[in-house]
Amino acid sequence: MASNITIIPAGASDLPTLAHIISLAMQVDLINRLLFPDSVYDLTSISKALLALFEKEFREPNTHFFKAIDNATGEIVGFGEITFHENAAPTLVAEPEEEHGGQAPPEGMNLAFAGRFFGGLEEKRKQQMSTYPKYVEWRGLHVKPGHQRRGIGSALLKYGFETLKADELPVWLYTQMRGRNLYLQRGFKDLEPLDIDLKDYMGELIVDME
Predict the structure, then answer these.
(1) How many whole angstroms separate alpha carbon 12 and alpha carbon 198?
(2) Geometric angle at alpha carbon 160, from 137 and 5, rounded to 5°
(3) What is the spatial distance between Cα 170 and Cα 87, in angstroms, rounded to a whole number?
(4) Cβ distance 7 to 67 under 8 Å?
(5) Which of 81, 88, 137, 201 shows a CA-CA span of 20 to 30 A to 157?
(6) Tens-place pLDDT, residues 125-148
(7) Quick one: angle between helices 43-58 and 15-26, nearest 10?
(8) HEC per residue, 167-193
(9) Cβ 15 vs Cβ 163: under 8 Å
């Protein structure tokens, strides 16, 4: 465990830093070969798009952002985000679907692949979790490059489970293969993969659902 790290709730003023951290952490992900096929990965544009999303999610009453602070420097070096969901009882009258405000996507993003990828993940979440009255969605866990493999990810998981009591409900998350072992060690089990035919998108990608 990262003994020189303190984990506390994140505030609205932290959101730009959190958006920048995830932008940095995603730079090396294989998925970016498909999301940004022309090697366009502008940190400023991506951070701006993520910040707009985080600001929306931060206002959700059941969503929690929490940050890992390096005690020696005071720097935010990682963060987590979880949301507690409650599935509404089915009704005879169809309720209107929630409208999602559309922030502009980052410049250069492959919108066709992004729609297939993120839309597929959302469909999987609904399929897997709709039978539970309540569940937790682990929306994000990211550690700044240069501070990884110091136990910060495990510390963030522990905070979410023990401090926020996320372990009292079924938990949903998705991860790429490089993050899979962290969750398996914590007791997660593989459910099913999200399969995407890459011939229309070029490149190679391995995605694992947990």
Answers:
(1) 38
(2) 135
(3) 12
(4) yes
(5) 88
(6) 988 898 999 999 999 899 998 898
(7) 130
(8) HHCCEECEEEHHHHHHHHHCCCCCCCC
(9) no
- The answer to whether the CB of 46 falls within 8 A of the CB of 16 is no
User: What CA–CA distances, in Å, run from 174 to 77, 108, 122?
Assistant: 21, 24, 10
**Six token digits for residue 15:** 């959101």
Spans of the chain, pLDDT less than 70 = 1-3, 28, 30, 37-42, 89-104, 201-210
Residues in contact with 94: Cβ distance below 8 Å, sequence separation at least 6, in sequence order: none
Residue tagged 């609904």 (tokens): 126
Give residue-wise pLDDT tens across range 60-84: 999 999 999 999 999 999 999 999 9
> What domains can be seen in the chain, in order of their start residue?
5-88+107-209 (3.40.630.30)
Q: Which long-range contacts (CB under 8 A, 24 or more apart) does 120-124 make?
A: 120/194, 120/196, 121/174, 121/194, 121/209, 124/174, 124/191, 124/192, 124/194, 124/209
Q: How far out from the chain centre does Cα 168 lie?
A: 20
**HEC profile for 86-125?**
ECCCCCCCCCCCCCCCCCCCCCCCCHHHHHHHHHHHHHHH
What whole-number distance in Å separates Cα of residue 5 and Cα of residue 113?
37
69 vs 156: CA distance, rounded Å: 11
Structure tokens that stand for 74 in this block: 């005071």
